[in-house]
Write a structure and sequence with these properties.
Shape: globular
Number of domains: 2
Oligomer: single chain
Helix content: 40-55%
Largest sheet: 6 strands, mixed
């Protein structure tokens, strides 16, 4: 196996029709990086982030930052992925205080998606925009598959919002949602699923505000992010670090002055999200959605 073959697999959505397809790809990728990387580069400002450099088959490309505290190695992933599926199918039996089980859910999700993203980083530069779009699409699909696996039907689609004037329905507005959860015909949860909040946080808050105003409802709106870090730009060659892409001021402002979201979840949560006022009350790791919150929102 080489990076070109992994890229070709990642570009084929047919390989990701179910959770096992995602797991199989991640296992192949982790097997590959265990033996065939040109280098593993340590971030200079947050040392637990790493950059993988591919060999000549991948044009010596360097990947996005990978959180080594979350990204499983190949042997660990083989065990964790099996436990992951078992936990999802029996998630209501997972006791809230079981930290190891929470980590398996969170870290396996992170490892699967970063395996896809990092593989796509080996693509030729001219196709990188299409690869970013594909990576986002595959993350959305992954999260919906995970939610379906716990026994909650999750879909993407368009919601028609009727606009009423003087008690008469005048027209409909169409809202595209990454995540729609219903009970029967009743919408219970609407959500966004994004690899990061970069350039998106404003729209996510506004979507809830406008939808709630137009429909005069209080349907919960949640958002699931993979991470909020990117490679730090540097003028010096061979200097590698990371920057956070999360905008805490915007998040706090919208939460306080516009409307709070009903759940914000990260696989790779930033340290300030655990400590800063407002942030720590509204942002959690992804496992909290599956084990705790989704059942309270339904």
């Amino acid at each position: 196996m080489n990076i070109k073959k992994l890229v070709a697999k990642a570009l084929n959505k047919g390989n990701f029709t179910d959770l096992q397809g995602y797991i199989d790809f991640a296992q192949e990728y982790l097997d590959f990086v265990a033996e065939h990387l040109q280098a593993e580069i340590v971030s200079q400002n947050e040392n637990h982030y790493r950059f993988y450099q591919y060999d000549r088959h991948g044009n010596f490309q360097i990947t996005r930052p990978i959180n080594s505290n979350l990204m499983y190695k190949t042997d660990t992933f083989e065990l964790a992925s099996s436990k992951f599926l078992e936990l999802l199918r029996n998630v209501k039996d997972v006791k809230p205080e079981l930290e190891v089980e929470r980590q398996i859910i969170n870290n396996t999700t992170y490892t699967i998606q970063q395996s896809i993203g990092a593989a796509l980083d080996g693509i030729e530069g001219g196709k990188s925009n299409a690869a970013r779009k594909l990576n986002g699409d595959l993350f959305e699909h992954l999260i919906r598959l995970i939610i379906n696996e716990i026994g909650v039907e999750a879909k993407a689609g368009v919601v028609q919002v009727p606009v009423t004037i003087s008690e008469t329905e005048q027209f409909n507005m169409s809202y595209q949602h990454d995540l729609i959860i219903k009970e029967g015909d009743e919408i219970k949860i609407l959500g966004s699923i994004k690899t990061s909040s970069k350039d998106r946080i404003d729209k996510i808050f506004m979507d809830k505000f406008l939808y709630s105003r137009l429909t005069e409802t209080t349907i919960p709106h949640i958002v699931i992010f993979l991470n909020d870090v990117q490679r730090k730009k540097s003028k010096r060659e061979n200097e590698y670090g990371i920057n956070a892409t999360f905008l805490p001021g915007h998040f706090k402002g919208y939460t306080v002055k516009l409307n709070p979201l009903d759940g914000v979840y990260y696989c790779d949560i930033r340290p300030n999200m655990k400590t800063e006022n407002i942030l720590k009350d509204h942002i959690k790791t992804f496992d909290h959605l599956l084990i705790d919150d989704i059942w309270n929102l339904l």
